[in-house]
Protein backbone atom coordinates (compact mmCIF):
# COMPACT_ATOMS: atom_id res chain seq x y z
CA UNK A 1 0.00 0.00 0.00
CA UNK A 2 2.80 2.41 0.84
CA UNK A 3 4.40 1.70 -2.53
CA UNK A 4 1.17 2.57 -4.38
CA UNK A 5 0.72 5.79 -2.42
CA UNK A 6 4.32 6.79 -3.09
CA UNK A 7 3.88 6.17 -6.82
CA UNK A 8 0.71 8.27 -6.96
CA UNK A 9 2.41 11.08 -5.08
CA UNK A 10 5.33 10.95 -7.45
CA UNK A 11 3.01 11.43 -10.43
CA UNK A 12 1.34 14.50 -8.96
CA UNK A 13 4.00 16.98 -10.14
CA UNK A 14 3.97 15.52 -13.67
CA UNK A 15 0.21 15.91 -13.94
CA UNK A 16 0.49 19.45 -12.67
CA UNK A 17 2.69 20.30 -15.67
CA UNK A 18 0.12 19.29 -18.27
CA UNK A 19 -1.46 22.74 -18.57
CA UNK A 20 -0.95 24.51 -21.92
CA UNK A 21 1.50 27.40 -21.89
CA UNK A 22 1.35 30.49 -24.07
CA UNK A 23 4.40 30.61 -26.34
CA UNK A 24 6.21 33.58 -27.84
CA UNK A 25 4.13 36.08 -29.95
CA UNK A 26 0.82 34.50 -28.98
CA UNK A 27 1.65 30.98 -30.17
CA UNK A 28 0.39 28.06 -28.08
CA UNK A 29 2.51 25.13 -26.95
CA UNK A 30 0.76 21.96 -25.79
CA UNK A 31 2.11 18.92 -23.98
CA UNK A 32 0.80 15.51 -25.15
CA UNK A 33 -0.91 14.68 -21.84
CA UNK A 34 -4.71 14.41 -21.35
CA UNK A 35 -5.89 17.69 -19.77
CA UNK A 36 -7.70 17.87 -16.46
CA UNK A 37 -10.72 20.17 -15.89
CA UNK A 38 -8.60 23.04 -14.60
CA UNK A 39 -6.32 22.67 -17.61
CA UNK A 40 -9.26 23.27 -19.96
CA UNK A 41 -9.92 26.60 -18.28
CA UNK A 42 -6.30 27.67 -18.71
CA UNK A 43 -6.29 26.52 -22.32
CA UNK A 44 -9.30 28.72 -23.03
CA UNK A 45 -7.43 31.68 -21.58
CA UNK A 46 -4.57 31.19 -24.05
CA UNK A 47 -6.76 30.60 -27.12
CA UNK A 48 -7.63 33.39 -29.59
CA UNK A 49 -10.32 35.65 -28.17
CA UNK A 50 -13.71 36.07 -29.75
CA UNK A 51 -14.18 39.48 -31.41
CA UNK A 52 -15.44 42.04 -28.90
CA UNK A 53 -15.50 39.36 -26.22
CA UNK A 54 -18.33 37.47 -27.92
CA UNK A 55 -19.11 33.76 -27.60
CA UNK A 56 -16.96 31.13 -29.36
CA UNK A 57 -19.50 30.77 -32.15
CA UNK A 58 -19.02 34.43 -33.09
CA UNK A 59 -15.25 33.95 -33.08
CA UNK A 60 -15.52 30.92 -35.36
CA UNK A 61 -17.73 32.81 -37.83
CA UNK A 62 -15.41 35.83 -37.90
CA UNK A 63 -12.31 33.68 -38.35
CA UNK A 64 -13.98 31.61 -41.07
CA UNK A 65 -14.95 34.76 -42.98
CA UNK A 66 -11.38 36.07 -42.70
CA UNK A 67 -9.87 32.77 -43.88
CA UNK A 68 -12.18 32.65 -46.89
CA UNK A 69 -11.30 36.23 -47.81
CA UNK A 70 -7.57 35.48 -47.68
CA UNK A 71 -8.06 32.24 -49.63
CA UNK A 72 -9.87 34.19 -52.37
CA UNK A 73 -7.04 36.72 -52.68
CA UNK A 74 -4.11 36.46 -55.08
CA UNK A 75 -1.58 35.78 -52.34
CA UNK A 76 -0.09 32.26 -52.46
CA UNK A 77 -1.09 30.20 -49.46
CA UNK A 78 1.93 27.91 -49.62
CA UNK A 79 4.78 27.09 -51.96
CA UNK A 80 4.02 24.56 -54.68
CA UNK A 81 6.17 22.71 -57.16
CA UNK A 82 5.77 23.46 -60.84
CA UNK A 83 3.12 21.26 -62.40
CA UNK A 84 1.26 20.62 -59.16
CA UNK A 85 -2.51 21.15 -59.33
CA UNK A 86 -3.83 24.35 -57.80
CA UNK A 87 -5.20 24.12 -54.30
CA UNK A 88 -8.95 24.16 -53.90
CA UNK A 89 -10.57 26.84 -51.76
CA UNK A 90 -11.27 24.27 -49.06
CA UNK A 91 -7.61 23.21 -49.00
CA UNK A 92 -6.49 26.83 -48.81
CA UNK A 93 -8.85 27.54 -45.91
CA UNK A 94 -7.57 24.46 -44.06
CA UNK A 95 -3.92 25.50 -44.47
CA UNK A 96 -4.67 29.09 -43.49
CA UNK A 97 -6.67 27.99 -40.46
CA UNK A 98 -3.84 25.83 -39.18
CA UNK A 99 -1.34 28.67 -39.57
CA UNK A 100 -3.69 31.16 -37.89
CA UNK A 101 -4.24 29.00 -34.81
CA UNK A 102 -0.63 27.83 -34.47
CA UNK A 103 1.23 31.02 -35.46
CA UNK A 104 -1.18 33.97 -35.57
CA UNK A 105 1.57 36.58 -35.77
CA UNK A 106 3.15 34.86 -38.77
CA UNK A 107 -0.30 34.71 -40.37
CA UNK A 108 -0.84 38.43 -39.78
CA UNK A 109 2.58 39.35 -41.16
CA UNK A 110 2.26 37.20 -44.28
CA UNK A 111 -1.33 37.96 -45.30
CA UNK A 112 -1.90 41.46 -43.91
CA UNK A 113 -2.23 42.99 -47.39
CA UNK A 114 -5.34 40.88 -48.05
CA UNK A 115 -7.00 41.67 -44.71
CA UNK A 116 -9.68 44.28 -44.10
CA UNK A 117 -10.46 46.32 -41.02
CA UNK A 118 -13.28 44.00 -39.96
CA UNK A 119 -10.75 41.16 -39.75
CA UNK A 120 -8.63 42.90 -37.10
CA UNK A 121 -10.92 41.63 -34.34
CA UNK A 122 -9.54 38.14 -35.01
CA UNK A 123 -6.16 39.30 -33.72
CA UNK A 124 -7.31 40.84 -30.45
CA UNK A 125 -5.35 38.21 -28.49
CA UNK A 126 -2.12 39.68 -29.93
CA UNK A 127 -2.89 43.21 -28.74
CA UNK A 128 0.11 44.73 -26.97
CA UNK A 129 2.72 43.00 -29.09
CA UNK A 130 4.55 45.79 -30.93
CA UNK A 131 4.80 43.88 -34.21
CA UNK A 132 1.15 42.85 -34.15
CA UNK A 133 0.11 46.43 -33.36
CA UNK A 134 2.21 47.68 -36.29
CA UNK A 135 0.68 45.21 -38.75
CA UNK A 136 -2.86 45.93 -37.54
CA UNK A 137 -2.29 49.66 -37.95
CA UNK A 138 -1.05 49.00 -41.48
CA UNK A 139 -4.23 47.06 -42.28
CA UNK A 140 -6.33 49.93 -40.92
CA UNK A 141 -4.43 52.47 -43.04
CA UNK A 142 -4.79 50.50 -46.25
CA UNK A 143 -8.49 50.09 -45.50
CA UNK A 144 -9.00 53.85 -45.32
CA UNK A 145 -7.00 54.37 -48.53
CA UNK A 146 -8.86 51.69 -50.53
CA UNK A 147 -11.86 53.89 -51.59
CA UNK A 148 -9.51 56.54 -52.99
CA UNK A 149 -7.55 53.89 -54.90
CA UNK A 150 -10.73 52.52 -56.44
CA UNK A 151 -11.81 56.00 -57.55
CA UNK A 152 -8.39 56.60 -59.08
CA UNK A 153 -8.50 53.35 -61.03
CA UNK A 154 -11.94 54.23 -62.35
CA UNK A 155 -10.71 57.62 -63.53
CA UNK A 156 -7.71 56.05 -65.24
CA UNK A 157 -9.99 53.63 -67.07
CA UNK A 158 -12.12 56.52 -68.27
CA UNK A 159 -9.05 58.31 -69.53
CA UNK A 160 -7.78 55.18 -71.31
CA UNK A 161 -11.19 54.68 -72.96
CA UNK A 162 -11.19 58.29 -74.14
CA UNK A 163 -7.72 57.95 -75.65
CA UNK A 164 -8.81 54.76 -77.42
CA UNK A 165 -11.84 56.59 -78.80
CA UNK A 166 -9.57 59.27 -80.24
CA UNK A 167 -7.28 56.73 -81.89
CA UNK A 168 -10.17 54.81 -83.44
CA UNK A 169 -11.93 57.94 -84.72
CA UNK A 170 -11.39 59.62 -88.08
CA UNK A 171 -10.85 63.17 -86.88
CA UNK A 172 -10.03 64.61 -90.29
CA UNK A 173 -13.25 63.34 -91.86
CA UNK A 174 -15.57 64.34 -89.02
CA UNK A 175 -15.63 68.03 -87.98
CA UNK A 176 -17.37 67.08 -84.73
CA UNK A 177 -14.07 65.66 -83.50
CA UNK A 178 -12.02 68.81 -84.10
CA UNK A 179 -11.76 69.61 -80.38
CA UNK A 180 -11.70 66.04 -79.10
CA UNK A 181 -7.95 66.05 -78.47
CA UNK A 182 -8.27 69.21 -76.39
CA UNK A 183 -10.99 67.57 -74.32
CA UNK A 184 -8.77 64.53 -73.87
CA UNK A 185 -5.96 66.66 -72.50
CA UNK A 186 -8.35 68.28 -70.05
CA UNK A 187 -9.52 64.85 -68.91
CA UNK A 188 -5.91 63.76 -68.60
CA UNK A 189 -5.11 66.61 -66.24
CA UNK A 190 -8.20 65.88 -64.14
CA UNK A 191 -8.06 62.13 -63.90
CA UNK A 192 -4.52 60.89 -64.46
CA UNK A 193 -3.23 59.15 -61.37
CA UNK A 194 0.04 60.12 -59.75
CA UNK A 195 0.63 56.43 -58.96
CA UNK A 196 1.45 55.77 -62.65
CA UNK A 197 3.62 58.71 -63.75
CA UNK A 198 5.57 56.57 -66.19
CA UNK A 199 2.47 56.16 -68.35
CA UNK A 200 1.66 59.86 -68.48
CA UNK A 201 2.19 61.37 -71.96
CA UNK A 202 4.80 64.09 -71.61
CA UNK A 203 3.63 67.49 -72.90
CA UNK A 204 5.36 68.73 -76.03
CA UNK A 205 7.50 71.80 -75.48
CA UNK A 206 7.64 74.62 -77.99
CA UNK A 207 10.94 75.07 -79.72
CA UNK A 208 13.25 77.90 -78.77
TrEMBL record:
Region annotated Disordered, chain positions: 1-59
Xref: PANTHER family: COILED-COIL DOMAIN-CONTAINING PROTEIN 97 (PTHR31840)
UniProt-recorded name of the protein: Coiled-coil domain-containing protein 97
Organism this protein belongs to: Puma concolor (Mountain lion)
Gene: CCDC97
Amino acid sequence: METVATTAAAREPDEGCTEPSTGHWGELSWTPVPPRPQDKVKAAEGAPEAPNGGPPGVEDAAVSAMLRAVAASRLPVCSQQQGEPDLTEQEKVAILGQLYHEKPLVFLERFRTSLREEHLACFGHLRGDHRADFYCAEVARQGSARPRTLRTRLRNRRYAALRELIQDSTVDDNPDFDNLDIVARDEEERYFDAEEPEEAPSPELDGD
